[in-house]
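Justification of resources, computational component.

The compute hours requested in this renewal are based largely on the per-chain cost of generating structure records like the one below. Each record pairs the submitted sequence with a full structure-token output. That output is archived, and it is also reused by downstream analysis tasks.
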Amino acid sequence: MCRCLPAGLAEIRSVQARRERSGGDLSVELKESGDARSALTEADEAAQRAIVGALRATWGAKLNIVGEEDGTEDSSEAPIADFDFEPLRMDLFADDIGETAEIDAEDVTVYVDPLDGTREFVEGRLSNCQTLVGIAIDGEAVAGAIGIPFPTGDLSSDSTVISGLADVGTGIHGEPLARGPFPLDHHIDGLKYPRPHIATGDSSAPVMDACREMAIERFGGSNVIYGGAGNKILAAALGEVACSIQHKVGGPWDLCAPEAVLKALGGRMTDLFGDEIAIYRKDAPARCNERGYVASSSGSAIGDIS
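The structure output for this chain reads:
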């Protein structure tokens, strides 16, 4: 996973560099009319093509890959054969996962979100953007890699990749991680943002408002706003916030990688009702993406707010 991410991250950064050179021009398509959260850009499509291409070049068609942009014209797998992809390194966790060598390939699914936080990318809030590649086995998130294309919110530093294997540990690749376990600078004021911090997006949906009010009433503290599902979960994993809450997600590609990293760092995730995340299962209930999630950091008192 860590080896397939750099190509996707490079595509995103390349699009941003061209955007800056052209004075901010960026072609944006809304997959759902009027919904800024459904934005699709050339960065999404190019990154998915690069990541899926690298995975296919290594494991072929037998690997079950589910990407957020599957079905979009430019990110389909048809053009992959026209590109050359660097072979992936496959030995990063060789000493830790030997016992999993006999897992049936049919039980493994790789979830790819080439640009989590596309809306934030379009709006120029680059520090919220991530690239997510997660592995689920038998319906459970077990491994993930989170790519951060803009660790400083711009192109001044190289990308960072955080990898995690649930119940085993994590690693950092590329640019050193420059965040956690303390609140972000703009949330550091304890008078304006008393702790514990509860991270959410900016949705004003009634169910989201109810979640915020209930969490603060029960645990105190304050609400801090983060963009991107992966970014919110990573904030909990790193201890920047006590927990993050979202009332619905786009699909399993939003959750698989960050949930695995969260668990690798000792955190926990459930849906809003306190049940285990079911969205990766073959028999996942209908509309389970609308059950949302609660991601809590290791040692957080906010472990179950259902």
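DSSP finds six helices and 13 strands in the chain. The mean pLDDT is 87.
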